[in-house]
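tool=predict chain=A
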Amino acid sequence: MKILIIEDEPKTAAFLTRGFNEEGYVVDVAADGEDGFHLAATGGYEMVVLDIMLPKRDGWWVLQEIRKHRQDQPVILLTALDDVSHRVKGLNSGADDYLVKPFAFSELLARVRNILRRAPARQTETLQFADLEMDLLRHKAMRAGKQIDLAPQEYRLLEYLLRHPGEVLTRTRLAEQVWDMHFDGDSNVVDVAIRRLRRKADDPYPQKLIHTLRGVGYVLEERD
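tool=predict ok
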């Protein structure tokens, strides 16, 4: 499940990214309103976490533009402005929820999950390829109807593969999108994670779905 964080304060953005990653979410970050809206319009996010005080374009503008293009995009506003008039403005402008800084990450996470639960029609509930399936709302992965116990990092990796079936995914792309890190050619972090995922989601089954393209990367596809 993908979350977009639009936040210009680096420490806050890093704090939120780490928290959501630990819960198995794929996270993108934009540091200003213009970049944030561009990503929101093109990235296919299940949730946008939007700060109000942003450079270039503020959060009010971003929210207004999102609502022009996608009425069903879930958005939670973050702000240091603890004023009733701002909360009312945010909700009247189309935000699904409003959270005042400082806040506990556990509260933000609970609000995100609550919005996604009560509005399941607004998002993709499941990802499926062959007999491999992921229930995004219940945070479960299954193969041939049997639940697979995945660590958060493995869950994010499998979700990314399921969102891009048939695409050749390089190690660099996986490192950047799943781990939010620049890929070091000497690092084997991606290969190790793929091996662990295969042991749980591929090796026990006769048909293999996760394939290696030597020297290039990996692909999720059915082969004869």
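The mean pLDDT is 87. The helical segments are 10-22, 33-42, 59-69, 84-92, 105-118, 152-163, 171-178, 189-201.
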